[in-house]
Design brief:
With 91 residues, the protein is of the alpha+beta class. The protein has two helices and two strands; from the N terminus they run αββα. The protein has one domain. Strands 1-2 form a two-stranded antiparallel sheet. A hairpin with a 4-residue loop joins strand 1 and strand 2. Helix 1 packs across helix 2. The longest helix is centred in the middle third of the chain and has 16 residues. The radius of gyration is 17 Å and the shape is globular.
Length: 91
């Protein structure tokens, strides 16, 4: 009897489903999209908002900075602070 490979959902070019974010998800998305406005040396390349966490791929450029380059830790701290303040409790 042959083995069956489980479907893990990793199909290339699968159709994109429309995902409706919760109120908190929309707040988080707005904060993510604002990152480049506050950090001119940072681009949000990709992100995904999950029920209890977020994944982001950030592009960092240090070409035309006047101040020290931004580090990822600072970006994440500020994102969490911004979202926490809007939803009323710490995330």
């Amino acid at each position: 009897m042959g083995s069956v490979v489980p479907d893990v959902g990793a199909i290339i070019n699968r159709p994109k489903a429309v995902v409706l974010l919760s109120e908190y998800g929309r707040i988080a998305e707005t904060a993510i999209l604002e990152i480049p406005k506050h950090y001119h040396d940072v681009a949000v390349d990709k992100y995904v908002i999950m029920p209890n966490h977020i994944h982001m791929i950030l592009g960092l450029t240090h070409g035309r900075l006047i101040i020290a380059p931004t580090n990822v830790s600072t970006i994440v701290q500020q994102l969490k602070r911004c979202v926490s303040k809007q939803i009323g409790y710490s995330i």
